[in-house]
Specification:
This protein starts with a strand and ends with a strand. The protein is built from 10 helices and 14 strands. By secondary structure, it is α/β, with parallel strands linked by helices. Helices cover 34% and strands 32% of the residues. Strand 8 (154-158), helix 5 (164-172) and strand 9 (176-181) form a beta-alpha-beta unit. The strands form 3 sheets. Strands 10-9-8-11-12-14-13 form a 7-stranded mixed sheet, sandwiched between helices. A 4-stranded antiparallel sheet has the order 2-3-1-4, with helices on one face. A 3-stranded mixed sheet has the order 5-6-7. The protein folds into 2 domains: 3-81, Alpha-Beta Plaits; 128-291, Vaccinia Virus protein VP39 (Rossmann fold, 3-Layer(aba) Sandwich), CATH 3.40.50.150. Bound molecules: S-adenosylmethionine (SAM).
Length: 292
C-alpha cells in the first residue's frame, strides 16, 4: 500500500510550531512527523506527517483540528511517496563499490565479497548512500583512516541516509553510534539496512533536523562526528557540531564541492577545528578536522 505525506507549508518558526502541535496530537503513535527546509532564502519550510494511504482521511482531520486555532488559513497538501521496490528494481544493476577495506554491495552481489573485505549490504532505495557517490566513498575511506589512527569510543552520523556510514563505523569497531536524518523515510530505510547487516544493537536511529533532538545530548559528546549533508547546512551547524564534539575528537565532513572547500574550512576554523586531511573524489571533497 502507498505511503502518503500530508504537509503544511509555512516559515521556519511556523513549521516548528506546527511540529509541536502535531506532536501533541499524535503523541506516542507510530507516525513520523518532521519539518523540512524547502527554500532557505525565502524562509519556506514544510511540516509533514507520514502515514499509510488507508489512514489518510482520519489523519487529515486530526491535523486540521490540531492546528486550526493557531493556523486558521493553513492548507494541508499531500504527496504520494513512491514504493521502495520500484526504485530498487530500476537500480539493481549497480556494481559493488570499494572504499578502503569496505565493499558496499547490493544483495545480488553477495558472492563478490572477499575474505578480508568489510562488507556492507545496501540495496539502492529511497535513501541516499549506496557507496557509488564520491561523498559516501570518501567518507568510508576517511572513517577507516581516522578509526585506525585514533581512539574512537562513540560516533555520530548526521544525515545518515541509507545508514551506510553508521554501519561502517559499527562494523569496524563495537562502539555506540547515533545516526540521524531529517527525513523519516531515510531513517526507516536505515533501520532496515542496519538489521540486514546483522547489527542487532549499538546503532540508535532518530529523525531530527540538524541537532534538534534530545538524543544528541544524551548520547554525546562524540569522539567522531561524520556529516555528509552539503556545504551550506554544514556551515550552518558548525557551532552546534563543535559543541557536541568530545575534547580531541575528530570530524569528517562531506557533501562539499571542491570549490566550496575553503568556505567550509573557514566556518570550522571559526569554531576551533583544524584541517587534518582532504580526500578528493569525482569533484567532491571529504575533510577530516580535529579539535585544537
Ligand atoms: C548526501 S546524503 C548522505 C547519506 C549517507 N550519510 C552517505 O554518506 O551516503 C545526505 C543526507 O542528509 C540528510 N540531511 C540533509 N540535511 C539534513 C539536516 N539538516 N539534518 C539532518 N539530516 C539532513 C538528507 O535527508 C540525506 O539523507
Amino acid at each position: 500500500m502507498s505511503e502518503i505525506r500530508l504537509y503544511v507549508t509555512s516559515t521556519e518558526k511556523g513549521a516548528a510550531e506546527i511540529l509541536d502541535l502535531l506532536s501533541e496530537v499524535f503523541g506516542e503513535e507510530d507516525f513520523a512527523i518532521a519539518t523540512t527546509e524547502v527554500d532557505e532564502r525565502r524562509d519556506i519550510w514544510e511540516a509533514s506527517v507520514y502515514l499509510m494511504k488507508d489512514e489518510e482521511e482520519a489523519v487529515r482531520e486530526r491535523i486540521a483540528e490540531g492546528i486550526r486555532h493557531a493556523f486558521p488559513n493553513a492548507v494541508i497538501e499531500r504527496e504520494v511517496i513512491p514504493d521502495v521496490d520500484w526504485i530498487a528494481r530500476s537500480l539493481e544493476g549497480l556494481k559493488p563499490v570499494r572504499a578502503g577495506r569496505f565493499l558496499v554491495h547490493g544483495s545480488h552481489d553477495r558472492d563478490k565479497v572477499k575474505l578480508n573485505d568489510i562488507a556492507i549490504e545496501i540495496d539502492a532505495g529511497q535513501a541516499f548512500g549506496t557507496g557509488h557517490h564520491g561523498t559516501t566513498a570518501g567518507c568510508l575511506e576517511m572513517i577507516e583512516g581516522v578509526m585506525r589512527a585514533r581512539t574512537v569510543r562513540n560516533a555520530l552520523d548526521l544525515g545518515t541516509g541509507s545508514g551506510v556510514l553508521a554501519i561502517a563505523v559499527r562494523k569496524l569497531r563495537h562502539i555506540k553510534v547515533l545516526a540521524t536524518d531529517i527525513d523519516p523515510v531515510a531513517v526507516r530505510v536505515a533501520k532496515e539496512n542496519v538489521r540486514r547487516n546483522g547489527i542487532a544493537s549499538g546503532i540508535r536511529l532518530e529523525t531530527a533536523p540538524g541537532f534538534h533532538s534530545p538524543a544528541f545530548r544524551k548520547e554525546g559528546p562524540f569522539d567522531l562526528i561524520i556529516a555528509n549533508i552539503l556545504a551550506r547546512p554544514l556551515m550552518k551547524v558548525a557551532p552546534q557540531l563543535a559543541a557536541h564534539l568530545a575534547p580531541g575528537g575528530s570530524v569528517i565532513l562531506s557533501g562539499i564541492l571542491a570549490g566550496q572547500r575553503w568556505k567550509v574550512l573557514s566556518a570550522y576554523n571559526g569554531v576551533k577545528l583544524r584541517h587534518v586531511r582532504t580526500i578528493w573524489r569525482n569533484g567532491w571533497v571529504t575533510i577530516h578536522l580535529r579539535h585544537g
